[in-house]
Design goal:
Blueprint (H helix, E strand, L loop, with lengths): L4 H13 L2 E2 H8 L3 H13 L3 E5 L7 E5 L1 H21 L5 H15 L12
Antiparallel strand pairs: 1-3, 2-3
Helix pairs in contact: 1-4, 2-3
Length: about 120
C-alpha cells in the first residue's frame, strides 16, 4: 500500500476526527514538527490528503483526507484487522480481551484515565 505506521496513524486520526491542523495532528500523535511536515508533504503528493485554508487561523492549514485517502485508509485498516485476526487466532475472544486490557494498562501513562474498550 505504500504506507508506514506513522502515515496510517495520520490517516486513522483524520478519518476519526475530520480536518485538523498539522500542529494538532503532530501533538495528538506525538510526531515532531519536521517529521510531520515530511509526512504531510508525502501524503499530499500521493493525493491522499490535502491542505486547505484554516478559517480559524490564517497562519495554519487544515489537513483533510481526499476521497482517495478515505478509501486507502479503509483498505489499510482492513489489512491491519485481517493481520491482527490472523496473528491472534490462537487466542479465544476472552483471552484476546484480557490481553488487550493488560497491554492497555502497560502502555497507558499512570496519570491518564483508561477508556473502556469494546471486545
Amino acid at each position: 500500500m505504500g504506507l508506514n505506521v506513522r502515515m496510517c496513524g495520520v490517516l486513522n486520526l483524520l478519518a476519526d476526527e475530520g480536518a485538523l491542523s498539522q500542529h494538532e495532528i503532530g501533538s495528538m500523535l506525538n510526531i515532531d514538527r519536521t517529521t510531520m511536515v515530511e509526512l504531510i508533504d508525502e501524503l499530499e503528493k500521493a493525493g491522499i490528503l490535502r491542505r486547505e485554508a484554516n478559517p480559524r487561523d490564517r497562519r495554519s492549514h487544515l489537513i483533510r483526507l481526499t476521497a482517495e485517502g478515505r478509501a486507502k485508509q479503509r483498505r489499510a485498516m482492513k489489512a491491519f484487522d485481517d493481520a491482527a485476526d490472523d496473528f491472534f487466532s490462537p487466542l479465544n475472544a476472552g483471552e484476546r480481551q484480557a490481553l488487550a486490557g493488560m497491554l492497555r494498562r502497560l502502555l497507558t501513562p499512570p496519570d491518564h484515565p483508561l477508556k473502556k474498550s469494546s471486545p
